[in-house]
Amino acid sequence: MTQSSTELKRHQGARREGYISTAPPEEFIVPLLKEHIENLLETYANKNNSRDTFALDVGCGRQPFRSNLEKAGYIYKSLDAVQNPEKSIDFICQLDKALPDEIVVNIKYDFILCTEVMEHIAEWDIAFNNLAQLLKTGGILLITCPHFYFLHEVPHDFWRATPYALQHFGNKYNLKILHQVSAGNAWDILGTLLSVSYCLPMTRKIGDRILSRFISFLIKFIFNLLRDRKLQKSVDFKSQFYMSNIIIFEKL
User: Fold this and answer.
1) Is 52 helix (H, G, I), strand (E, B) or coil?
2) Which of 26, 99, 100, 158 has minimal CB crowding within 10 Å?
3) Are the C-beta atoms of 61 and 217 separated by less than 8 Å?
4) In what order do the strands lie in the sheet with 74-80?
5) What is the pTM of this model?
6) Which DSSP symbol is given to 56?
7) How does strand 135-146 pair with strand 244-251?
8) Can you tell me whether residue 128 is helix, strand or coil?
9) C-alpha angle 202-204-210 in degrees, rounded to nearest 5
10) What is d(CA 174, CA 131) in angstroms, rounded to the nearest whole number?
11) φ, ψ (nearest 5 deg) of residue 194
């Protein structure tokens, strides 16, 4: 596989212009994250209404939250491993590698957004150290990463973090937790699972083939009900599983 094809697979998310679902597996996690991120930006972004404050969008892709951060009053800067089609990313580097001097020396950031990136970062120690290094004392770091999701951007998909992993690395790098949520319910889990599931008959016997077709129909039928939020309005489905980690840190 060539380097260009590897980068293309790794950064499929760079094609996302807005934070909206573009495929069945995204029908549950993307709206969930969008709601939480937008609410948290309203609560924590530029809470002191200061001027000349800087925000860094890590793993920004096509920058779906740029307008939110700029409306909050930040001077927007962006970082990703590859450039986006608009050529609008300020810093091209990997979060778990040594950061270039141009990003380390010039600015300390008041707010860092790092959404759906950490599962693709192999070296969390280096990544958290870099984030803490870039963040101003008293600055805010918003991280989201999935707990339940299918493999994507392979082979660059390394982790499904628990809340305790995020707590561990935050504490290690002097980051205080202001807000932490295990977001998404059992309906979100089931809908995501069904979106990437299919069945085949075990044999060519007519009974197996009929059963396989029936289950395939049932999968599609239940997925459509969940996508349209029809079951969710009538039944509260409980589980110990959840979709995504959402956490706000403050640098001490």
Assistant:
1) coil
2) 100
3) no
4) 91-92, 74-80, 53-58, 109-115, 135-146, 244-251, 175-183
5) 0.91
6) E
7) antiparallel
8) helix
9) 80
10) 11
11) -65, -30
102 phi, psi to nearest 5 deg: -60, -30
Distance of CA 204 to the CA centre of its chain: 42
Q: Which helix (H) or strand (E) holds 189?
A: helix 186-195
Spatial contact of 202 and 143, defined as CB atoms under 8 Å apart:
no
Best CA proximity match to 241, nearest among 172, 186, 179: 186
E-strand ranges in the chain read 53-58, 74-80, 91-92, 109-115, 135-146, 175-183, 244-251
Residue 9 has pLDDT above 50, yes or no: no
Extended strands (E) in 116-211 = 135-146, 175-183
pLDDT at residue 4 above 60? no
- Indicate the length of the chain as a whole number: 252
Q: How many angstroms separate the CA atoms of 217 and 79, rounded?
A: 43
Tens-place pLDDT, residues 180-231: 999 999 999 999 999 999 999 999 999 999 999 999 999 999 999 999 999 9
Does residue 117 contact residue 16 with C-beta atoms inside 8 Å?
no
Give the closest residue to 185 by CA, choosing from 118, 244, 119: 244
Instruction: Decide if domain 3-185+240-251 falls under CATH 3.40.50.150.
Output: yes
Cβ atoms 53, 110 nearer than 8 A = yes
CA atoms of 49 and 59, how far apart (whole Å): 25
Quote the tokens at residue 92: 């091209």
Q: What is the mean pLDDT of residues 103-108?
A: 84
